[in-house]
Design goal:
The protein is mostly helical and about 70 residues long. The chain has a domain of about 30 residues. Helix content is about 90%, strand content about 0%. Keywords: Coiled coil.
């Protein structure tokens, strides 16, 4: 029969291993979250760039219409 100390050492080892697995899972989830945030931010930047390009085109088109009339 295991002594109380041996049993506690075994439980400590199990808890330490469980803790390590939990830390690894947290790290993986954090990396996944960071990747999703980067993807979201990139998508926002691309959207903003597209909007800026569209607005530039529309302003340019209106300027040409004002200068040369409707075609």
């Amino acid at each position: 029969m295991a002594t109380v100390l041996e049993r506690l050492e075994g439980e400590h080892t199990t808890l330490t291993q469980t803790h390590q697995v939990a830390l690894e899972e947290i790290q993986a989830l954090t990396e996944e979250r960071d990747a999703l945030i980067l993807e979201r931010d990139t998508t926002r930047q691309e959207r903003d760039t597209t909007i800026q390009q569209r607005d530039h085109y529309l302003r340019h088109r209106e300027a040409l219409r004002a200068k040369y009339g409707e075609t």
